[in-house]
Amino acid sequence: MEEIYIVMLVALFALAITDLVVGVSNDAINFLNSAIGSKAVSMRTIMIVASVGVAVGAIFSSGLMEVARKGIFLPGQFYFNEIMIIFMAVMITDVLLLDFFNSLGLPTSTTVSIVFELLGAAVCMAAIKIYTQSDGDLSALTEYINTAKATEIIVGILMAVVIAFLIGAIVQYISRLVFSFQFEKKIKYVGAVFGGLSLTAILYFILIKGMKSVPYISEATMDYVNTHTVIIVLIGFVIFTGISQFLMSVLKLNILRTIIIIGTFALALAFAGNDLVNFIGVPIAAWQSFDLWQTAHSATGVLPSEFAMTGLSGSVPTPEILLVGAGAVMVVTLWFSSKARSVVDTGINLARQGDGVERFEPNWLSRGIVRYSVLIGNAVSTILPDRMTRKIENKFDKPSSHLRSKRFDAPAFDMVRASVNLVVASVLISIGTNMKLPLSTTYVTFMVAMGTSLADRAWDRESAVYRVAGVLNVVGGWFVTAIVAFTAAAIFGAIIYFGGTIALVVLIIIALVLVVRSGIIHSRKAKEEKTRKRFNKSDIVTINEITSETSENISKVIAGINKMYSKTVDQLGYYDLSKLKKNYKRIEKLESEVDELKDNIFYFIKSLDEDSVEASKFYILTLDHLQDMVQSIGFITRNSYNHVHNNHKNLKFNQIRDLKKVDDKMQILFDEITHTFDNHEFGNIDSLLNEKQDLMDYVSELIQKQIQRIRTSESSPKNTKLYFGILLETKDLIGSTMSLLQLFQEFYNEARTTTY
């Protein structure tokens, strides 16, 4: 009997390590996005600072571990075997849920997930207990669940979302009015005061937020800090203002960069100190439960189904070695998790200054919000005096140098906004903690960043609907987290209760397999994204770089078209619906790559040097030809899929054979083109152009042959439509390819003449 619970403990701690990995990957947005987005310091420095903060916070964290033991349910109402089922259901759900959000690259709250998982599993187990009794009255759930705490958490979530957004927007708006976008000129006059305020706020944050969770701080010290908080803050402001002035005047340091570094450390420390319970609190509570039962079992022989877990209601210290180990896992994850970077990318993408490639599609709600916001903004502008309006507008004017340097490797936002993000988030979390309000660091930091983005006019008319849609998706995901966490934990709890050991083993295996599978898929996508980012690069400034970049684009698109055409012809011949469906989906990826290139034309033209501006026309025409080619292969692929999907008769053997001959000839031609552009052997373009007419003539012959078939033999109208469509689009595809080669040859020859 004892062995099964030892196995469950081992499984719980194994799941805890996995949970630490997926949890840190998701919560990295809390303390990384401001520093990374502003590019105030190098990535290496950011990671070192965050790692130190996480390590310190983890080591001094244990005061919140009682949340898993008694914060959500009343442990005395459950027996040991029931408590272990609750904890197993919670950990399996948490690992799967957080990994799912990481795979989507969306930030969610580990606090909310663990709370609602505990709530769901406990409600499930309480309901089973109630229904096994004679009355079966569900109103008795209040005897098992801490309903007041659950209600407090839900209210806290709603308050955090709204308050963090509004405060972030207000503070950023005032900061921008003070500094404007040319903050380098103003920083020498108001930088010391701003630094004093910011560093004092962070000090307050560390004292109030950090010291509460440090077990080594005496109650007398905490009482002194709480009693003299105002004096400590005022003294801190004076001291930090002086230090800020010294750093700026004597050491010539950028005070904003200093604030960002210290703020990143403070948030990382708070994350580890506050959220560590979300990852290891449940396994530690399970271990403590096992220890209590084992002691009682040795003394009295009490069974797991008879031992009430009243002992969990007390205060039990967390072993230091577990905290050190958890901190080590968190730091390693922070350095090596690619999913952490993708979650951070989401926050930075939604907060970045200016437009670009948008990740989220607009919806009716985002369009409505933007439309009415514009109307309200216009109404307010008519009320304000013209002089005041012009003065405000001047504060938000971006210098021309800012516009010229707007490339993909530029900061997403400046250091003023990054500092405000960190300071406001720190203060709000401090106030919430001091008032004993249940706050999620994810909610606060994300919504502050969104509020500052709005106030900073990062969401202009070009990007607002996309950004608002993104925020709605993320916020909606938070509430989905609560619902899914509650439901899944309840279901898993029921499965384990009724299925026993076999069900438990199956669930653990499924969870681990899904996490590993998700990691493999994400790694594959990350490699594709890395390639695609190189493909989408717009940081081009010279003729040679334009030639190199364009040749890469041409080679990649033609290689993709070549592969797609050959697969479509083969699968059409075999009447293979499943593979044609895969092609149908893959063509969207090829189209999106070319669309993104066209979306980036603005930045491409902005980034050209003065001697290369004429090349913009060449680049635009190249993308136009590439799009024509992709549209042709898209037509062929989609029509072939729809033909088979609608169960029409397959093409005749002669038609398939003729298409295969076209495919063979096109493969030879496209392989030569790809080789030419991959190796920059542009002198071969003349010979490639000579092959054009032969291939075009052959396709024309096939069209004429099909006309004869229709007149002399019976043929299906649907087959004829598909066959003619493929041939005509093939002809257009060849024509667009040859036009592209001619355009490139002319540009290349002209560039060489200009160079020499």
H and E order: HHHHHHHHHHHHHHHHHHHHHHHHHH
Quick one: biggest sheet? Answer: none
Helix share bin: over 70%
Class per helix and strand makeup: mainly alpha
Subcellular location: Membrane
GO molecular function: phosphate transmembrane transporter activity
Protein name: Phosphate transporter
Keywords: Membrane, Phosphate transport, Transmembrane, Transmembrane helix, Transport
Characteristics:
26 helices; Phosphate transporter; 80% helix; mainly alpha; 756 residues
What can you tell me about this protein's structure?
- This protein is mostly helical.
- The protein contains 26 helices and no strands.
- It has helices at residues 2-27, 29-38, 43-59, 66-71, 80-104, 110-132, 147-179, 183-211, 219-227, 229-249, 255-300, 320-336, 338-351, 364-383, 386-395, 400-404, 415-434, 441-455, 464-535, 543-574, 577-599, 601-607, 615-645, 653-678, 685-712, 717-755.
- The protein is globular.
- The N and C termini lie far apart (86 Å).
Topology (elements, then pairings):
Layout: H1 2-27, H2 29-38, H3 43-59, H4 66-71, H5 80-104, H6 110-132, H7 147-179, H8 183-211, H9 219-227, H10 229-249, H11 255-300, H12 320-336, H13 338-351, H14 364-383, H15 386-395, H16 400-404, H17 415-434, H18 441-455, H19 464-535, H20 543-574, H21 577-599, H22 601-607, H23 615-645, H24 653-678, H25 685-712, H26 717-755
